[in-house]
């Protein structure tokens, strides 16, 4: 589309907006009906560790959404000389799971407990046994049941719980709904009925410590919707919440709110059975769409769904890029001392490119990037740790490669369970996430660490917000009965710009040596949790 055509599309509202609330950034993108991004905005935020809980204040949720929207609207005005007043469809996506309990009158009953918390182990042990289905610590039902077990005062006032995307969607549209992918991280889904698992709902409701409360779990959970279903419209109040300038009018169609797992699947076109993708940002999680049930229950493999409700095996590691950021900040401060003001993209590029000169085994250096506890390696709290021996080859190149290996190590260890015990493998994984903003290096290290070809698309560093914008467009543009898979293959990914990197034999061997040292040293990391108190 040329500038005149885009301006006309904006005037007519033939555009779709995607907003994703990720762990480190809120991003908004506007796409035309050919799925090209024509404008964007973002807001940087960071979780806080307050009173033993990882959280974000809800006021900052709105500050971030409004700032991202404001930048996007200014981008539209600057490039296309149009004021953004009408948006065809809107989708909200966010980090999944966690705990946002509300009272009947809409009051938040506890600060937001995010996916990053490892505070629900007793609840997950009990529920996993009850359902014979893996309940990870970060899931909404684990948080709710842990609050029950803790006998927290607020529990009897609960009227509704939701995820972050569900909360924002509710405020914009008045609808208490979730896309099925996001819902699958709240409570287990039954793939056959594309809804919460009835048997598990009943079992949960029958628990003695749950029966005490007047609420019913069925009424407390949001309603489940499939991709493409109508999830309400933007209300006048919602329009004001999104666009503080008041230019935006009400009435946009709303897509079912999704989790960043689902939007990652869309952004990498990984909805069909046996396709695989991986998201690498604050956390790292790989996802394979299943064509058969798993042979057995694994505590390291989570079953979620695609936005159209197919089961997906997910390996989720809580820690990926946060420690890279912490070290990058140290290098930035050092550069600052030398009078050099390093902007983030330049900083990451300079560091990552250094890793190209590293020894394949990263010189024997070891790093545990655990800002928070790590489920895969059974480390209960965050103690970032860098260890080396006197003979390790301590160079900047090896240090940076160590950081990248360490970012991918937990997910690699978890994925070995899927490969070795379930024989579930994909020929290639399509990856997305902020680490690919600097091309090649992180992609190659990931391919070597996982010993799997990694494909990255042009949109990889903006995968999530673009994915939810595509889901919004699907509500508006799909032909009757057109499946999401066909919509993606036929309309969205006609000609994707991709780059695939294969594992390099030397790199694979080096990564394996790193992982061996990493696993051998895990006892030291666990001892750090035990001995070094906050
Ligand atoms: N220019 C860059 N090159 C490489 N990595 C980057 C760059 N900018 C940011 N990053 C990394 O990307 C991460 C954010 O990735 P993203 O997928 O947006 O994650 P999240 O959803 O967790 O916020 C940052 O925390 C940082 O580690
Ligand atoms: O928990 C999940 C997926 O199951 C994610 O929402 C969570 O790890 C947050 O992802 P990001 O690190 O923000 O990409």
UniProtKB/TrEMBL annotation:
<dbReference type="InterPro" id="IPR018485">
    <property type="entry name" value="FGGY_C"/>
</dbReference>
<dbReference type="InterPro" id="IPR043129">
    <property type="entry name" value="ATPase_NBD"/>
</dbReference>
<keyword id="KW-0808">Transferase</keyword>
<comment type="similarity">
    <text>Belongs to the FGGY kinase family.</text>
</comment>
<dbReference type="InterPro" id="IPR050406">
    <property type="entry name" value="FGGY_Carb_Kinase"/>
</dbReference>
<dbReference type="Pfam" id="PF00370">
    <property type="entry name" value="FGGY_N"/>
</dbReference>
<dbReference type="InterPro" id="IPR018484">
    <property type="entry name" value="FGGY_N"/>
</dbReference>
<feature type="domain" description="Carbohydrate kinase FGGY N-terminal">
    <location>
        <begin position="16"/>
        <end position="241"/>
    </location>
</feature>
<feature type="domain" description="Carbohydrate kinase FGGY C-terminal">
    <location>
        <begin position="277"/>
        <end position="474"/>
    </location>
</feature>
<keyword id="KW-0418">Kinase</keyword>
<dbReference type="Pfam" id="PF02782">
    <property type="entry name" value="FGGY_C"/>
</dbReference>
<dbReference type="GO" id="GO:0008741">
    <property type="term" value="F:ribulokinase activity"/>
</dbReference>
<protein>
    <submittedName>
        <fullName>L-ribulokinase</fullName>
        <ecNumber>2.7.1.16</ecNumber>
    </submittedName>
</protein>
């Amino acid at each position: 589309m040329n500038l005149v055509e885009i301006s006309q599309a904006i005037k007519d509202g033939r555009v779709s907006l995607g907003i994703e609330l990720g762990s480190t950034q809120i991003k908004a993108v506007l796409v035309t009906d050919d799925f090209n991004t024509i404008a964007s905005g973002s807001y940087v935020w960071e979780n806080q560790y307050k009173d033993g809980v990882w959280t974000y204040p809800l006021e900052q949720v709105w500050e971030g959404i409004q700032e991202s929207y404001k930048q996007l609207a200014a981008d539209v005005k600057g490039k296309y000389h149009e004021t953004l007043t009408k948006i065809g469809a809107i989708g909200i996506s966010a980090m999944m799971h966690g705990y946002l309990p509300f009272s009947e009158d809409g009051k938040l009953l506890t600060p937001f407990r995010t996916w990053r918390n490892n505070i629900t182990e007793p609840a997950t042990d009990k529920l996993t046994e009850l359902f014979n289905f893996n309940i990870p610590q970060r899931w909404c039902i684990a948080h709710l049941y842990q609050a029950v077990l803790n006998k927290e005062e607020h529990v009897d006032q609960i009227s509704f719980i939701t995820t972050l995307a569900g909360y924002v969607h509710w405020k914009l549209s008045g609808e208490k709904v979730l896309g099925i992918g996001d819902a699958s991280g709240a409570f287990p889904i039954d793939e056959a009925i594309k809804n919460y698992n009835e048997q598990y709902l009943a079992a949960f409701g029958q628990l003695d410590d749950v029966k005490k409360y007047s609420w019913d779990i069925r009424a407390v959970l949001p309603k489940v919707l499939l991709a493409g279903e109508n999830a309400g419209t933007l209300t006048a109040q919602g329009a004001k919440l999104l666009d503080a300038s008041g230019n935006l009018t009400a009435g946009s169609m709303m897509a079912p709110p999704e989790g960043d797992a689902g939007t990652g699947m869309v952004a990498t076109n990984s909805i069909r059975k046996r396709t695989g993708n991986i998201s690498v940002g604050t956390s790292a999680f790989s996802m394979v769409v299943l064509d058969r049930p798993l042979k057995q229950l694994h505590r390291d493999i989570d079953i979620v769904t695609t936005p159209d409700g197919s089961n997906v095996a997910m390996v989720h590691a809580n820690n990926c890029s946060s420690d890279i950021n912490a070290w990058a900040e140290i290098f930035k401060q050092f550069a600052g001392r030398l009078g050099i003001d390093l902007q983030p993209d330049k900083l990451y590029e300079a560091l990552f490119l250094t890793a190209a000169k590293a020894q394949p085994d990263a010189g024997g250096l070891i790093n545990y990037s655990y800002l928070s506890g790590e489920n895969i390696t059974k480390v209960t709290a965050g103690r970032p740790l860098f260890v080396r021996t006197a003979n390790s080859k301590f160079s900047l190149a090896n240090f940076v490669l160590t950081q990248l290996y360490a970012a991918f190590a937990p997910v690699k260890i978890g994925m070995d369970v899927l490969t070795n015990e379930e024989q579930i493998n994909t020929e290639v994984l399509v990856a997305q996430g902020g680490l690919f903003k600097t091309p090649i290096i992180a992609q190659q290290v990931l391919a070597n660490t996982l010993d799997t070809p990694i494909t990255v698309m042009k949109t990889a560093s903006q995968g999530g917000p673009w994915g939810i914008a595509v889901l919004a467009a699907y509500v508006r543009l799909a032909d009757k009965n057109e499946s999401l898979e066909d919509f993606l293959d036929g309309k969205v990914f006609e000609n994707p710009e991709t780059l695939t990197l294969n594992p390099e034999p030397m790199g694979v061997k080096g990564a394996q040596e790193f992982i061996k040292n990493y696993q051998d040293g895990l006892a030291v990391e666990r001892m750090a949790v035990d001995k070094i108190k906050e």
